[in-house]
Design a protein that fits this description.
Bound molecules: 1,4-dihydronicotinamide adenine dinucleotide, 2-OXO-4-methylpentanoic acid, magnesium ion
Pfam family, one: Iso_dh
Distance between the termini: 36 Å
Structural class: alpha/beta
Subcellular location: Cytoplasm
Largest sheet: 10 strands, mixed
CATH superfamily of one domain: Isopropylmalate Dehydrogenase
Strand content: 15-25%
EC number: 1.1.1.85
Mean pLDDT: 96
Shape: globular
Function: Catalyzes the oxidation of 3-carboxy-2-hydroxy-4-methylpentanoate (3-isopropylmalate) to 3-carboxy-4-methyl-2-oxopentanoate. The product decarboxylates to 4-methyl-2 oxopentanoate.
Keywords: Amino-acid biosynthesis, Branched-chain amino acid biosynthesis, Cytoplasm, Leucine biosynthesis, Magnesium, Manganese, Metal-binding, NAD, Oxidoreductase
CATH class of one domain: Alpha Beta
Strand order of the largest sheet: 2-1-3-12-11-4-5-10-8-9
């Protein structure tokens, strides 16, 4: 079968998910459609997956669902997960059974999370400087693989383990990707880990970074323990260009990155399958935010910026730049009363 020409038409799977995912995703889809205009067609197929759907139907994500999703060019996801206090959702049944299942099944081994402070955006940092870095987070391994267990559950003698998986295959391909990103940027790469304590995984990551660095003599690299990295993200974020790190550290650091760049509502991400064997999936960094869900308080900018990553991934830079420029202009003018989710979406689209 001939590959589809995604420069003229996009077949997009849309998973709004739960909570504010259902509010921000329609804004992102509408913005994507407006930015493409007459240049390219887009068809969207909505999938209901998420905690709400699970509570209504008992279904999370079947093999048939996976096969249906695999046929699309890309996936746009809002956020999934319900009230963490709901016992029916205990054990991260949705996060594991849906979100991580998608990332693992579609081999999204690169979790790409760019961070920059757009002009005019108020950062909580005293000296934000030139914040413009990208976190290249491993997406299919680490402590997220479900490798662990518990014994004597509910007794004072309970023991629970969560074993982080790090394979040479998985780390090597991620590190290679990160160096390639650094080559296209300011040629500085920081490995973030905890090699002084997590010595087995740390040795593997360090060895593979060092080996890859030899193939990129023009990329300068350094290393930070993750705890120290949190200091520098707040005190000197301009020192970062590309951060390469594991699944858990990358998850935590990118919420912090969102906060320092003006808010988690601005932080976009892509779960990338670089080989193109499976559709990549784009989503805001944030979750379903039950505390503000249903109130039109969520900032849709992160979801809208996730469509920029989506378009770039599909090789459509012109509409990507149009959305990025519209967001930048809107962010520069954001002073005044807080706006609703829909108003922010409208304002960004009016600037396209
Ligand atoms: N990719 C995904 O689907 C993710 C799902 N989750 C799930 O989401 C649920 C809530 O998780 P939390 O830890 O509370 O993280 P969260 O990111 O949903 O919320 C953290 C804080 O940020 C605020 N916030 C988040 N997005 C915002 C936006 N666009 N505009 C304005 N404020 C925003 C929320 O109101 C909240 O105060 C949980 O079930 C969690 O498992 C969490 C992270 C990622
Ligand atoms: C909900 C988790 C599984 C994922 C997460 O927080 C993230 O990818 O940022
Ligand atoms: Mg997270």
């Amino acid at each position: 079968m001939e590959p589809r020409d995604v420069t003229r038409s996009i077949d997009l799977a849309v998973i709004p998910g739960d909570g504010i995912g259902r509010e921000v995703v329609p804004e992102a889809v509408e913005t994507l459609r407006a930015a493409l205009g007459a240049d390219a067609a887009i068809t969207t197929t909505n999938y209901p997956f998420g905690a709400t759907h699970y509570l209504e139907s008992g279904e999370i994500l079947s093999d048939d669902d996976l096969a249906a999703l695999a046929a699309h060019d890309a996936i746009l996801l809002g956020a999934v997960g319900g009230d963490p206090r709901d016992p029916r959702l205990a054990g991260g049944i949705i996060e594991r059974g849906l979100l991580l299942r998608l990332r693992f099944a579609f081999d999204h081994y690169v979790n790409l999370r760019p961070t920059r402070v757009f002009p005019g955006v108020v950062s909580p940092l005293v000296r934000p400087g030139d914040v413009d870095f990208v976190v290249v987070r491993e997406g299919t391994e680490g402590p997220y693989v479900g490798n662990g267990g518990a014994i004597r559950i509910g007794t004072p003698a309970e023991i629970a383990t969560e074993v982080s998986l790090n394979t040479a295959y998985g780390v090597e391909r991620l590190v290679r990707y990160a160096f390639e990103v650094a080559e296209r940027r300011r040629k500085r790469l920081t490995l973030v880990h905890k090699t002084n304590v997590l010595t087995n995984a740390g040795a593997l990551w360090t060895r593979l970074v060092r080996a890859e660095a030899e193939r990129h003599p023009d990329v300068e690299w350094d290393y930070l323990h993750v705890d120290a990295a949190t200091i520098f993200l707040v005190t000197d974020p301009a020192r970062f260009d590309v951060i390469v790190t594991d699944n858990l550290f990358g998850d935590i650091l990118t919420d912090l990155a969102g906060a320092i760049s003006g808010g988690i509502g601005l932080a976009a991400s892509g779960n990338i399958n670089p080989d193109g064997a499976f559709p990549s999936m784009f989503e805001p960094v944030h979750g379903s935010a039950p505390d503000i869900a249903g109130q039109q308080k969520a900032d849709p900018t992160a979801a809208i910026l996730s469509t920029v990553l989506l378009l770039d991934h599909l090789g459509m830079p012109e509409p990507a730049r149009r959305i990025e420029a519209a967001v930048a202009t809107d962010l520069a003018d954001r002073a005044g009363a807080p706006r609703s989710t829909g108003d922010v979406g409208d304002a960004i689209r009016s600037r396209l």
